[in-house]
Design brief:
The structure holds 2 protein chains of 2 kinds.
Chain A lengths: L1 E10 L2 E11 L4 E5 L6 H7 L8 E6 L2 E3 L7 H6 E4 L11 H11 L5 H14 L15 H13 L5 E5 L7 H16 L3 E5 L3 H6 L3 E6 L2 E7 H6 L4 H10 L3
Parallel strand pairs in A: 3-8, 3-9, 6-7, 7-8
Antiparallel strand pairs in A: 1-2, 1-4, 4-5, 9-10
Helix pairs in contact in A: 3-4, 3-5, 4-5, 5-6
Chain B lengths: L4 H40 L4 H16 L2 H19 L10 H26 L3 H9 L4 H31 L11 H12 L2 H32 L3
The chains are: A alpha/beta, B mainly alpha.
C-alpha cells in the first residue's frame, strides 16, 4: 500500500531525514515513535506531500511521489490527515468543517455531503454538536471532528501527527478510542504518537526513529518487550520510567 | 457675526446631494479597494518572486505619494493615455466621477492590501496545511477558508481605514467635484455663508465618523470576547 524508499530531506545544512525506507501493507497500523527532533513528523508529512523530499521515492496506492512531483491533488484525496493542533476551520460550523472538502474537492452534492458528515459525526460521538463552532468544543471533541473531516473524503490511508499531544490527559482516551475503532475496521494508519499503550495494543508494527533514521522496525509487542537497538532501549527506558 | 440658520436650511438639499456623492465614493472605494487590495495581498504572499515584487512595488508606490497627487494624475494623465492608446490624437475626457472612483479604488487598494495581508499572516500555518491535506485547490482554500478568517481578524482595522477613506473623499474638491465639502464650498462662495456652511459640514462629518468609530469599538469588543 505504502512504499517509502530511501527518502532523504534537508533543511539547509540540517539533514532531517536520512535514507528512510519502510513498507506498510493495506490495513496495517504503524506507529512511528522516537525522541523529539528525530524526523517523525517530517516523515509522516512526506506521505501526503505536505513536505517535499530531496531524494528517494514514495508510493502510495499506485501514486508515485518523487523530488519534483508537484501535482499531488490525486494523492491527497486518498490520504487523510489529522494534526496535533486539530486545525479545524474556526469560522465554520462542525458540520461545514466536515462537508467543505466533500463538496469542493469531490464535488458531492450538499445533501450527500451532509448525510455523510452526519453519519461520521455520529460515529465519533458528536451528533449533538453539529451546529456548533470549533471554539465551543473541548480539545478532544475538536480532534474527533478533525478525524471525521479527514474520513469524509473516504481516504485509503489515515495519517495521524501526534493527535493527542495537545490534549488534556482526560481527553486523550476519547480520541484514542476513535482511532482504535478505525484500526479495527481495517483502515491503513500511520500514527506519530507518544501513546505507548496505543502503540502496544493497537499497532501492528512500530517504527523507531532517531536522528532522521529509521533505527528499528518491529512488531509492536516485540519492540516493547525486546528492543534490539541500544537507542530504542534508551528511549523506552526514558519514557516508560514512571 | 450672526449664524444664519435659514441659510443652512436652504442649502441642506444641495449638501445632502453632495453627501450622497461622498457616500458613493466611499462605497466604491471600499468595495473596489478591498477586492483589488485582496488580490494584491495574495500576490504579495505569492511564491512567484515576479508576482510578489510587482505587487510590493505597486503598494509601496501608492503608499508613498499623496492621494491628491493621484487624483491629479488620473484626472489629467488618463485622458491623454486613453487618447494615445486609441490613437485618436487628442485626450479623451473621462469625467470627474469616473476619475474619482478609479482613483480611490487604485489608491485605497494599496492600504487595504496591507491590512488584508496582515490578516492572512495572522492565520496559523497549520490552516494552510489543513487545506492542502484536504486536497482543496489554492482558489478554494483562499475563498472559503483563508480569506474569511483573514477579514475577520482585521475587521476593526478595515473599518477604521474606511472611516479615513470617508474623510479623504473631501480631497476631490481639487477637481471641482461636488461631494459634501465641494457642495458646501460652492454654496459658501455663492451666498457668502462661509461660517454656516463649513460649520454644518463639520458637524455632519463629525457625527457620521464618530458614530462609525463607536460602532467599530463595540465590534472590536464583541470580536475579542466572542468565540473565535
Amino acid at each position: 500500500m505504502i512504499e517509502i524508499s530511501h527518502v532523504s530531506k534537508s533543511y539547509g545544512s540540517f539533514q532531517v531525514l536520512k535514507g528512510c525506507s519502510a513498507s506498510i501493507a493495506r490495513g496495517e497500523v504503524v506507529v512511528i515513535c522516537g525522541p523529539s527532533g528525530s524526523g517523525k513528523s517530517t516523515l509522516i508529512k512526506t506521505v501526503n506531500g505536505l513536505e517535499t523530499i530531496d531524494s528517494g521515492e514514495i508510493n502510495v496506492g499506485g501514486f508515485r511521489l518523487a523530488p519534483g512531483v508537484t501535482n499531488v491533488a490525486a494523492l491527497r484525496r486518498s490520504v487523510g490527515m489529522v494534526f496535533q493542533s486539530f486545525e479545524l476551520f474556526p469560522h465554520l460550523t462542525v458540520l461545514s468543517n466536515v462537508t467543505i472538502a466533500q463538496t469542493k474537492v469531490l464535488k458531492r452534492s450538499r445533501a450527500a455531503a451532509e448525510e455523510k458528515a452526519r453519519s461520521l459525526l455520529t460515529r465519533v460521538g458528536l451528533s449533538a454538536h453539529i451546529t456548533k463552532h470549533p471554539a465551543q468544543l473541548s480539545g478532544g471533541q475538536q480532534q474527533r471532528v478533525a478525524i471525521a473531516r479527514a474520513l469524509a473524503l473516504d481516504p485509503e490511508v489515515m495519517l495521524f501527527d501526534e493527535p493527542t499531544s495537545a490534549l488534556d490527559p482526560e481527553m486523550v482516551n476519547e480520541v484514542l478510542d476513535v482511532m482504535t475503532g478505525l484500526a479495527r475496521q481495517g483502515m491503513t494508519m500511520i500514527c506519530v504518537t507518544h501513546e505507548m499503550g496505543f502503540a502496544r495494543n493497537v499497532a501492528n508494527r512500530v517504527l523507531f526513529m532517531d536522528g532522521g533514521e529509521i533505527v528499528e522496525t518491529a512488531e509492536a509487542a516485540k519492540f516493547f518487550d525486546v528492543p534490539k537497538s541500544d537507542r530504542a532501549k534508551a528511549f523506552l527506558a526514558k519514557i516508560l520510567k514512571h | 457675526m450672526m449664524v444664519d440658520v435659514s441659510a443652512i436650511a436652504a442649502a441642506m438639499p444641495y449638501l445632502l446631494e453632495g453627501l450622497w456623492f461622498t457616500v458613493q465614493i466611499t462605497l466604491v472605494g471600499v468595495t473596489g479597494g478591498i477586492v483589488f487590495g485582496s488580490l494584491l495581498a495574495v500576490a504579495r504572499l505569492s511564491k512567484n518572486p515576479m508576482v510578489s515584487a510587482l505587487a510590493t512595488a505597486y503598494v509601496n508606490l501608492m503608499r508613498s505619494i499623496p492621494l491628491i497627487l493621484v487624483i491629479f494624475w488620473v484626472f489629467f494623465l488618463v485622458p491623454w493615455a486613453i487618447g494615445w492608446l486609441t490613437q485618436s490624437g487628442r485626450p479623451i475626457a473621462v469625467g470627474a466621477s469616473l476619475t474619482i472612483f478609479v482613483t480611490f479604488v487604485l489608491f485605497e487598494a494599496a492600504y487595504y492590501a496591507e491590512i488584508v495581508r496582515a490578516g492572512f499572516r495572522s492565520i496559523s500555518p497549520g490552516q494552510y496545511s489543513a487545506c492542502e491535506a484536504l486536497g482543496l485547490s489554492k482558489f478554494h482554500a483562499y475563498i472559503y477558508i483563508l480569506f474569511p478568517q483573514a477579514i475577520r481578524n482585521v475587521l476593526p482595522i478595515l473599518l477604521t481605514q474606511t472611516i479615513v477613506l470617508f474623510q479623504d473623499t473631501s480631497l476631490v474638491y481639487v477637481i471641482s467635484a461636488t461631494d459634501l465639502l465641494g457642495a458646501a464650498t460652492k454654496v459658501a462662495q455663492r451666498d457668502g455663508r462661509l461660517v454656516e456652511m463649513y460649520l454644518t459640514v463639520g458637524v455632519i462629518y463629525f457625527v457620521l465618523c464618530y458614530a462609525a468609530s463607536q460602532f467599530v469599538k463595540q465590534l472590536q469588543g464583541r470580536l475579542a470576547h466572542g468565540a473565535r
